[in-house]
Amino acid sequence: MTSSPVAPDSTMEIIGRAVELGRSGDVAAARIGLLDVWQQIGASGDPFHRCTLAHYLADLCDHPAEALIWDTRALDAAASITDDRAQQHHHSLQVAGFYPSLFLNIADNLRRLEAFDSALEHITQAEERCGALPDDGYGETIRTAIREVHRSIDDRDSARRESAPGAS
After folding, report:
1. For position 105, what pLDDT does the model report?
2. Number of domains, the chain
3. What is the helix, strand, coil percentage profile of the chain, to 5?
4. Which tens digits make up the pLDDT trace of 20-69?
5. 3-state secondary structure of 165
6. CA distances (Å), 76 to each of 49, 69, 125, in order?
7. Same domain for 112 and 74
8. Taking the chain, what is the end-to-end CA distance rounded to the nearest angstrom?
9. Of the candidates 93, 109, 133, which is a domain's last residue?
10. What is the pTM of this model?
11. Domain end call among 73, 93, 113
12. Which domain holds residue 145?
């Protein structure tokens, strides 16, 4: 959600820098940066900003309950994003393509909390929306993770996946 912007967006640039900090291993600085932006945009700010920020911030949470809160915020915000708004950030974005990852993340958190029935409902939602994923590396990464999480739900396995974002 952060590459090739159509128009400059300083909030997305700040979010992008924080995400890069997290990916480079500076999780504490990434969390601080994202939480600072959250304080500025708040729960009623631009839904695209809220969705993106919450989605990435959830990946930086150690505890699945905390991650679940941020992933739920991301999913809630996605419901208010239009394709036109998403395409202001990047011309190829379609909001429908956000949902497989959003439902996947919620399912994974619920699974880690041993709420397997609820996790199954959410992973099913992710599977049903996979058609909106691109046929590229990103799409395959999400499809693979959905299969992994579904298998873990079926096995009643609550361990953190090695392939999960932020996993060490």
Report:
1. 97
2. 2
3. 70, 0, 30
4. 999 999 999 999 999 999 999 988 999 999 999 999 999 999 999 999 99
5. coil
6. 12, 11, 15
7. no
8. 23
9. 93
10. 0.89
11. 93
12. 94-160
